[in-house]
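Hey, I was hoping to borrow your eyes for a little while. No rush at all, and the record is pasted right below:
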Amino acid sequence: MSDEKPTRRDILRPLHLLGIALGCGVFAAVVTLVSTGAFTLRVNQAIANGTYEGLTPLALGLVVGGGAFIVTLLILAMLMLAVDPSDVTKTVDRPVLYDDEAKDRPDSDDAGRSTTS
């Protein structure tokens, strides 16, 4: 493992967030295409003959994929608002969800565990 510790700014770059949202959108579109039978001969013949009723599987896949992209992007943007701007330049050197008191006593066996009775 390298000794370089990334900052939160390095971890949460906007292009990475767009890439994650794009990946979610493409995944949702592919799942929709497969589940609606877009690659089957029966559905493709019905579309070619004009007897297919409703939204075609390709159009439905684009709608679902675009919706998943937008929703994912909005959720990630809202989660970015939860990050304190002063924490952006700090290095990440321990898990985020650990208690602050666990940092003070690293030799104890219950470091990182809550002490509720």
